[in-house]
Structure to design on (270 residues):
């Protein structure tokens, strides 16, 4: 039996309420970094903000010949060229962009971090973001445009979460408090075959892809203006998360062949 409304202290048997908000520290720390960078940019003059974007945003113009017009060299050299696949995740266009990303990061990063741990979570997050950036650059090589935001990496978290949140024992209540004795020991293994044969997972993937394609074609209105969405980066990150999550998942099958977590904690028994 698992207590969901309240828990009993193992030492004295007293009933105690679970914390109302218990997101993993690595997720809160990442959100803090995103917010901190944005706040710093607010105190910079416009010329410095433009310089910040030129150096640290992701621009396809760095990685291919321009489709039309003269080539415009961007500052920084090869180091900045490579670093841009990571640094662009920490820049955001405005507060609306940042807040939406933080909400999705909190919602989908929480179950991922609880399942695979802080170190694996960070590697997974950045790898998905890098693959999302590579996807966008590959399609738009040579274009003088700048991509900012952690949406590609967060899309990867959504793809990874789709591998297990809908399975038996998965954390369907994404933000619900968990029994500490079971934390990090989910009962279902996240096999790509099993997750993608689950109807709820397929519906989630289909809706997510449809929304991104629609917003990518027509844009989305933010603060009174229509903003172009780098849906290719979202798609690349999502597919990367969906396909690669198993490489980061510490859960292993039990000796009997059923879903289990041998060596990683207790059985849930559900």
């Amino acid at each position: 039996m698992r207590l969901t409304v309240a828990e009993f202290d193992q030492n004295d048997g007293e009933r105690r309420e679970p914390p109302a908000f218990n997101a993993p520290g690595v997720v809160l720390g990442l959100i803090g970094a995103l917010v901190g960078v944005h706040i710093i940019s607010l105190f910079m003059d416009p010329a410095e903000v433009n310089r910040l974007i030129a150096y640290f945003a992701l621009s396809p113009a760095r990685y291919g010949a321009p489709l039309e017009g003269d080539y415009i060299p961007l500052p920084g050299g090869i180091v900045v060229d490579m670093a841009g696949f990571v640094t662009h995740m920490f820049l955001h266009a405005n507060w609306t962009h940042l807040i939406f990303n933080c909400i999705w990061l909190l919602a989908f990063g929480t179950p991922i971090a609880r399942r695979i741990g802080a170190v694996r979570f960070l590697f997974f997050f950045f790898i998905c973001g890098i693959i999302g950036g590579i996807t966008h650059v590959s399609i738009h090589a040579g274009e003088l445009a700048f991509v900012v935001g952690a949406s590609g990496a967060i899309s990867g978290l959504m793809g990874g979460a789709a591998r297990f949140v809908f399975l038996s024992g998965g954390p369907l209540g994404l933000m619900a408090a968990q029994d500490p004795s079971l934390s990090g020991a989910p009962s279902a293994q996240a096999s790509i075959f099993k997750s993608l044969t689950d109807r709820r997972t397929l519906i989630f993937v289909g809706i997510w892809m449809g929304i991104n394609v629609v917003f990518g074609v027509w844009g989305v209105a933010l603060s009174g203006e229509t903003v172009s969405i780098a849906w290719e980066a979202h798609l690349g990150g999502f597919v990367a998360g969906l396909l690669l999550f198993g490489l980061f998942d510490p859960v292993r099958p039990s000796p009997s062949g059923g879903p289990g977590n041998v060596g990683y904690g207790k059985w849930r028994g559900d």
Observations:
- Confidence is low (pLDDT under 50) at residues 1-20, 173-186, 253-270.
